[in-house]
Amino acid sequence: MKTIFSALLVTFAMFAQAFAADIMQAFPPAEAGMVRHVIILPAQKDESALKVELIVGKTVVADAANRYFFGGVLEAESIAGWGYERYILRKLGPMAGTLMAVDPDAPKVERFVTLGGEERLLRYNSRIPLVVYVPADVEVAYRLWRADPSPRFMRKVALPNG
User: Fold this and answer.
1) Beta bridge partners of 152
2) How far apart, in whole angstroms, are the C-alpha atoms of residue 113 and residue 100?
3) What pLDDT is stored for residue 154 in this prediction?
4) How far apart are CA 28 and CA 10, in angstroms?
5) DSSP 92-160
6) CATH number of 2-146
7) pLDDT at residue 160, rounded to an integer
8) pTM score, two decimals?
9) CB 147 within 8 A of CB 50
10) Which residues 6+ apart lie within 8 Å of 12 measured at CB?
11) Which helix (H) or strand (E) is 88 found in, with range?
């Protein structure tokens, strides 16, 4: 019985590895000067209650008082023939930020400065990897968001005028 279970486990592991390799054929390798980041999400009980936030940015040395962001557009592109989406940042734009006066003798700190604009919230799907192409000096991170399990309902309120 243990031998059968072990054989089934090894077969399942090989099938899972082959499936992952097959799915990655849909995502072309990165172009020169770019890096392909692959995020494989673990299976969850209720994936419809989850979202994935892609965080793209770069670690820079700057003052601690101002807020900074990079220009640039993270594009979603459908892969022809597969239907999968990939996300591409073709170029990281210039860094911008607030202009608060800072003591010139204040020490500079390393900060992770993200891409400006709205957050990129994506549907959680553990069956397909999230693939992000960015320039070589850019970092990719992600954050998981979970919906409150109990819905909130509004109460009807009677106004004095009806």
Assistant:
1) none
2) 17
3) 80
4) 29
5) ---EEE------TTSPPEEEEEEBPSS-EEEE--TTS-EEEEEETT-EEEEEEEE--SS---PPP---T
6) 2.60.40.550
7) 83
8) 0.75
9) yes
10) none
11) strand 85-89
CA atoms within 13 A on the CB side of 2: 0
CA nearest to 123, candidates 142, 150, 141:
142
Chain-centroid distance, C-alpha 149: 23
Measure the N-to-C terminal CA separation of the chain; round to a whole number of Å: 73
Q: Would you say how long the chain is, in residues? A: 162
Q: Which amino acid is at 119?
A: E
Residue owning tokens 């054929």:
25
Whose tokens are 């006066």? That residue is 101
Domain boundaries defined on the chain = 2-146
HSE of 13, CA atoms in CB hemisphere, 13 A: 6
Tell me how far apart the alpha carbons of residues 157 and 162 are, in angstroms, rounded to a whole number: 10
DSSP class of 26? T
Q: Hunting for tokens 């992770």 — which residue is that?
A: 112
- Compute the distance between CA of residue 146 and CA of residue 28 in angstroms, rounded to an integer: 31
The answer to whether 57 and 92 have CB atoms below 8 angstroms apart is: no
Residue ranges in the chain modelled with pLDDT below 50: 8-20
- The per-residue pLDDT for 3 is 58
Structure tokens at 70: 């990079």
